[in-house]
Amino acid sequence: MRVKPHPGLPFILVCVVLDVLGIGLIIPVLPQLVGVLAGNPTSQAWWFGAILVSYGVMQFFFAPALGALSDHFGRRKILLLGIFGLSVMFAVPAVTDSLVVLLLSRIVGGMCSANIAVAQAYIADITTKETRTQAFGLIGACFGIGFILGPLTGGMLGEYSLRYPFILASFLSLINFCYGFFILPESLLPAHRTTFTFSRCNPFTSLSHLAHLKSIGLLIAVIAIATFSQSILHSTWTLFTVHKFDWTPMNIGVSMVCMGLVSATMQGFALKKFLALLGDKVLVFIGLISGAIAYFAFGLAPAGWMLYVIIFLNFFFAGVAPALNGIVSNSVTAEEQGRSMGAIASLNSIMGVMAPVVGTPFIVHTVQQNPHSLLAGLLYILCGCLLLFGSYLAYEHFRRLHYQ
Predict the structure, then answer these.
(1) pLDDT at 193 over 80
(2) Which site in 125, 147, 192, 364 is 20 to 30 Å from 138, CA atoms measured?
(3) pTM of the shown model
(4) One-letter-per-residue 3-state SS of 223-276
C-alpha cells in the first residue's frame, strides 16, 4: 500500500534532509573550530565534550516538551519555530570567537533540533496505520541522505574556511523555514488536540507512560539497546578503524557513505517490500539478529576490506528503527502522538550521549593499546551481545502479546 499523497509529506522529508544536512555540514569542522578558539588540546577536549554532551542532553529534555506543545498548539507552529531557531543557532558559530557563546548556541540548537519528534508526529497524523512504518522509513532514508551529503560538503567547504559550513547550514535552514511557512498545512485536527501540562514534558514520565502500555512495554528497552549500539558504532568507528587497520580519512569517509547508502536504500526503497513480506514484528527480530552478527563480525574482522562487506550485508538492521517507531505510533492515540514520539526521540538522544562517554574510553584502552589482539574488537562484540539480548526481549514481548 502506498503512502497517501499529502502536501505536508514532501515538506517533512525535505525538512529532515536539510536538518540532517545542516548537522552533517558542521561535523568535519566543529572540532577544529573549537580547537582554534580553545588554543590548546586539553582545553579543546573539554570544550568539545561539553558541546557534544549538552547538545544531546537538550534534545533529551526538549523532545517530549516540543511533542507535547505540538499536541496542544498543532504541529506546524512548533515545527517552524524549531527550524527558524536552528537557522539562527547555525549562524552563531560563523561569527563568534567566544567558546561560551558557541556552547550556548549548541545548547539552544539541541533544543530546536528536538523538533524531529514533531516531524514524526506530523507523519503519524497524515498516514494510516498500514502506511505509517513505511513513512517512518522515508524519514530514516532522509537521515541517510543528509549524512552522506553533509559531511562531504562540510569537509570541502572547511578547506577554505571553518566558518563556511555554518553559514551554509544556516542558509539551508532559513530556506527550509520559508518553504514551510508558505507550503506546510496543519496536520493535527482541533478535535485531537490536548491540554498542555508540564508533566507531559517530563521525558522520564513520558517514557514510563509508554513502558506501561501493554502493546509497547519491553520494546522501550529494545529501542534503547538498538540506538545505543548504533551510536557506539558512529562515535568509535574512526578510532577503531584508524588504530586497527591504519585507515585514512578517505577510507573512513567511504565507509560512512556506504553506511548511509545502505540505510537510505533499505528505509527508502526496500522497507515497503520487507514489511509486506515479513510484517513489522518479524522485521524487528531479524534486524536485531542481523545487527548482532554484524557487530560480532566488525569486532573479529582481521582485514579492513571485510568491513565494507559487513556493512552491505547488514541492511536488515536499518529497518529496525522505523519498524519500532511504527509499532509505537500505532499503539497510541492521535492525541498522544507528539508526546510519544518525543519520548522515543528523548530516549534516542540520551543513548547518543551515553555511547561516546562509554565507547571512547573503552576503545582507547583496547584498540590503541593492542590493535592486533582480540581485545581490539571487544566493544563491538559486547554490542553484538546486547543486540542478541534485545532480540530475545523483542521475541518475548511479541510472544506474550500473541497469547494475551
Answers:
(1) yes
(2) 192
(3) 0.80
(4) HHHHHHHHHHHHHHHHHHHHHHHCCCHHHHHHHHHHHHHHHHHHHHHHHHHHHH
